[in-house]
Amino acid sequence: MSENNGSKGPSEPTAVPNRPRPQSFAEVNLESKVLWKDRKRILGMPISFTRYLVDEDHLTLKIGLLNTRIDDVLLYRILDIKMTQSLGQKIFGVGSITVFTADKSQDQILLKNVKNPEKVRRYLGQLVEQERENRRLVGRELFGVAGEDGDVDGTLN
């Protein structure tokens, strides 16, 4: 019922190019291109029921076999990525990656015991930057989501 009279009101979020919006629930595509996947490893072997997936715009954790929990974060909402590797993890060729996000429900996501952690950390960083460029986001749009003091990990320097 409102007319567009050329006034500058609140701007609508910029749509991501080449991603059509589904018109109905039935049109939602659950199959997306998986860019990286791994499992939490025990003694270097992928024998756990914790799975990590990265698709074109999400980082997803699937935890459990009978009772399943799925945690999901949009790539552009990732603020920082940290890798740690203990001596035991180095022996088995795995490491842990902590992803700090702007998500209110889960501000940290731990990818535990993933293979080639340094490559995964760099790859995730590149995907995050690419997704921000695709959505035309700049630093000032993410400023302030880390908290009042601007520190993501809760420690002050």
Average predicted local confidence, pLDDT: 81
- Gross CATH architecture of the domain at 32-137: Roll
CATH topology of the domain at 32-137: PH-domain like
The counted number of beta strands is 7
Largest sheet: 4 strands, antiparallel
CATH superfamily of the domain at 32-137: Pleckstrin-homology domain (PH domain)/Phosphotyrosine-binding domain (PTB)
- Give the number of helices: 3
Which class of secondary structure composition applies to the elements?
Answer: alpha+beta
Rough outline: globular
Instruction: Give, in order, the helices and strands.
Output: EEEEEHEEHH
- Class of the domain at 32-137, according to the CATH hierarchy? Mainly Beta
Q: What portion of the residues fall into strands of 2 or more residues?
A: 25-35%
Write down the Rg.
Answer: 19 Å
Question: Can you describe this structure?
Answer:
The chain has three helices and seven strands. It has helices spanning 87-92, 117-134, 139-142, and strands spanning 34-39, 50-55, 58-63, 69-74, 78-84, 94-101, 108-115. The chain has a domain at 32-137: PH-domain like. A hairpin with a 6-residue loop joins strand 6 (94-101) and strand 7 (108-115). By secondary structure, it is of the alpha+beta class. The longest helix is centred in the last third of the chain and has 18 residues, at 117-134.
Short key terms for the protein model shown above:
single chain, 157 residues, alpha+beta, PH-domain like, four-stranded antiparallel β-sheet, three-stranded antiparallel β-sheet, 3 helices, disordered N terminus
